[in-house]
Amino acid sequence: MPEIWVVSAPGPQALEKLNAATKPNNLSVNYKFHIPDLKVGTLDTLVGLTDDLAKLDTYVEGIIRKLVNYMEEILEDQKEMLHENLHVNNVDVPQYLTRFQWDMAKYPARQPLPAIAEIINKQVQQIETDLKQKASAYNSLKTNLQNLERKQIGSLLLRSLGDIVKKEHFVLDSEYLTTLLVVVPNNICKDWEKGYENVTDFIVPRSSQKIYADNEHTLYNVTLFKKVVDEFKNKAREKKFIVRDFTYSEEQLAAGKSHHAKLKMDKSRQLSVLFRWLKINFSECFVAYIHVKALRVFVESVLRYGLPVNFQAMLLQPAKNTKKLREVLNKLYSHLDSSLAAGSIDDVPGGLASFGVEEYYPYVFFKINIDMCEKA
């Protein structure tokens, strides 16, 4: 469904006439767009509401796009699952649109039109606020986990060493001796292996062993007397041997692994809750969006066709030849505004552009943007 149009025309047989005009060339599939008997109010109210509803339309669509974009973002390498999760009231978007029924419980039809618009506005504002809070919490957790995992796979100069070293690499619980971990650039490993015993005095002979290597560096251990640690660090640095600050503690290593496991579990749990919330509120926002469209159709139709209310709103699913469909519609409804041929908004008297109208036709016309639901 690349495009969905909503048009309205006066008269009880409007849908039948539309079908008769579009069916011969299969220009569109048409459905009745059910709008209840809403409270008209005053003409001034309707004119003022035109601009407010145009802004509300844009706002709600923007929040839907944020929800969809964030759903796609958190799916990460499973983005193909997005489309199958974009349902509205437990049905897919096309089915919801073609079977649209006004939600009387959420948006009581007996309320004044501005009150209904305000209900929608407050509802969507709350969703936007909740989205910011939930996204911030999840992104913070995700960043903490990424930073932790980055330390486990990065350069030996920065990465965590807890998953590399073992207890046997260290001299522990000695009053005089200690073991240091030294990172050596690969191109001078031979210098280390031949000369580490002479970096300073009081180094245990043959105490260094190669523990781990990556593409740029190699990790060694070395045992020496505690009293020369500072001197050793300084002289090693002069030779481009970097001593890593590390104290072997099984308790701390176990706590680190437990923290990592907890972060992964928290992320998985929050992802599940967040994704379910996004699905629910995509549905809520899309329902609100279509009700805004219905309000706009109603207000514009009353302003165009007058009172008593006697128009039929219709949803069109155009085929490929939208240009031909537009020509047929203009011909079918040209009698509704004989003083103006369909054309640019610049041709429209009265500056309807100020009301958010970008295209003007002899009939009431709005487009439903569903490209935001077609990302996957």
From TrEMBL:
One family name in Pfam for this protein: V-ATPase_C
Molecular function GO terms recorded: proton-transporting ATPase activity, rotational mechanism
InterPro entries for this protein: ATPase_V1-cplx_csu, Vac_ATP_synth_c_sf
GO cellular component terms, A-Z: lysosomal membrane; vacuolar proton-transporting V-type ATPase, V1 domain
Record bears the keyword Ribonucleoprotein: no
Keywords, comma-separated and alphabetical: Hydrogen ion transport, Ion transport, Transport
Keyword Transmembrane helix: no
Function of the molecule: Subunit of the V1 complex of vacuolar(H+)-ATPase (V-ATPase), a multisubunit enzyme composed of a peripheral complex (V1) that hydrolyzes ATP and a membrane integral complex (V0) that translocates protons. V-ATPase is responsible for acidifying and maintaining the pH of intracellular compartments and in some cell types, is targeted to the plasma membrane, where it is responsible for acidifying the extracellular environment. Subunit C is necessary for the assembly of the catalytic sector of the enzyme and is likely to have a specific function in its catalytic activity.
Assembly description: V-ATPase is a heteromultimeric enzyme made up of two complexes: the ATP-hydrolytic V1 complex and the proton translocation V0 complex. The V1 complex consists of three catalytic AB heterodimers that form a heterohexamer, three peripheral stalks each consisting of EG heterodimers, one central rotor including subunits D and F, and the regulatory subunits C and H. The proton translocation complex V0 consists of the proton transport subunit a, a ring of proteolipid subunits c9c'', rotary subunit d, subunits e and f, and two accessory subunits.
Matching PANTHER family: V-TYPE PROTON ATPASE SUBUNIT C
Stated family: Belongs to the V-ATPase C subunit family.
Protein's recorded name: V-type proton ATPase subunit C
Organism, scientific name: Larinioides sclopetarius
